[in-house]
Amino acid sequence: MSATLAELPSDCHCHNNQEHFLERAFRGLELSDTHRELLLQSFCEITVQIPLRKRDGTLRSYPGYRVQHNHARGPFKGGLRYHPNVDLGEIRALAQLMTWKTALVDIPFGGAKGGIAVDPFTLDNEELETLTKRFTQKLSPLIGEHHDIPAPDMNTGPQVMAWIFEEYSKSHGYTPAVVTGKPLELGGAEGRLEATGYGVAAVTLKAAADISLNPTNAAAVVQGFGNVGSHAALRLAENGVRIIAISDVGGAVFNEKGIDVKAAAAHVAETGSLQDFPDCETLSNEELLTLPCDILVPAALEATINCDNADNIKAALVVEAANMPVTHTADHTLRDRGIVVVPDILANAGGVIGSYFEWAQNIQRFPWEKTLFLSRLEQLLLRCYRQVNDAARDSNVDMRTAAYEIAVARVSRAIELRGF
Ligand code: NAD
């Protein structure tokens, strides 16, 4: 079960963490206070209430959010998450993160994020469709293929995107490019489903090589076995990495000799969770994070590596597949302990790169083949990895600070040129 905010360690408030990371970049770039403020403010923030009559007759109202942070470099872009802990502060921080991420990988988008504070597992499919379509009606004046383009995030996927596309198209005509991460039959792109995890694995293998870790001798632990975590684990395993533990919200499974990741994915597809997956010991998510391993890939929620457990992380390399999984205090601790952290805005950017490719194909009505999609994605991401690594080495800073400096400088320059 996910923790409530009151139960979280003191450094787990994600908006504070982001401010700390940004502060390091702002200092490096010597930005004025006014400039900083301009970069931090959201362009638009909305909160809506979405009423839903449930099948048992009860009436519920769920808060929904969309934050558009910055569009100096292109239309707002960012996912929608359905989770009971979603609130405006979290969505605001995640929207900002998207601005820096799209700038870092140099694609023509700004940053946004949205979501509904709901546990989707308490709703049936029809209730989820109604909730999503009502949310879309409320977002309709804000989103659009050249304005703001939502995508999947935690607990949303191709089906939710299909409902948004349908609802939006009722009032705006056929508009597949209004969302990305759609089913293939509705203009989704071959490769988009695995894009984030595929990119995470590509960056992990490169970062591992840079610290002289041979994939075939490396053991990895992956927290979260949803879209990102499962595809990252599958791809790492294909490249010879031994995946010794994986987890979902219900707990972790561990096998020192290596888990058959394909079989685990099939088990989850069939049963809905990792529970009872054979030939493994069970562990808690907390125990999983502190297992001895070479590579740790947090691919679930934010702030999972925090002041309570950073001292006990035993990996040599942490790759942030989730958004903001390492708090600023934990980031400090990991750095002091010589653990390399590949930051989220680089590590999981394969998702938004894939979304960009899907959007471009939709706008042009010209689909690409999957091999072209994945090879372009890997090329773009690894070029970006090299830029960040070179900048970190040249300025003698960590990869996160280097990545933020590159991204913030690009957004700042775009604002200057456009004369906002
Ligand atoms: P998902 O809903 O497909 O999967 C989430 C996984 O995390 C599930 O296995 C779930 O059981 C597990 N989980 C949930 N709560 C947990 C907890 N308290 N402890 C351990 N595991 C828990 O979501 P996703 O799309 O894979 O997204 C995962 C992360 O990656 C999020 O931080 C998201 O913002 C980020 N991300 C996703 C994409 C994308 O394309 N989907 C792109 C970039 C970043």
Structure write-up:
- By secondary structure, this protein is of the alpha/beta class.
- The chain has two domains: 145 residues, Leucine Dehydrogenase, chain A, domain 1 (Rossmann fold, 3-Layer(aba) Sandwich), CATH 3.40.50.10860; 153 residues, NAD(P)-binding Rossmann-like Domain (Rossmann fold), CATH 3.40.50.720.
- 46% of the residues lie in helices and 16% in strands.
- It contains 14 helices and twelve strands.
- The strands form two sheets. It has a seven-stranded mixed sheet with strand order 9-8-7-6-10-11-12, with helices on both faces. A five-stranded mixed sheet has the order 1-2-4-3-5.
- Helix 3 links the parallel strand 3 and strand 4.
- The protein is globular and about 55 Å long.
- The site of nicotinamide-adenine-dinucleotide has 25 residues, from helix 7 and strand 7.
Summarize this, please?
By secondary structure, the chain is α/β, with parallel strands linked by helices. It is built from 14 helices and 12 strands.
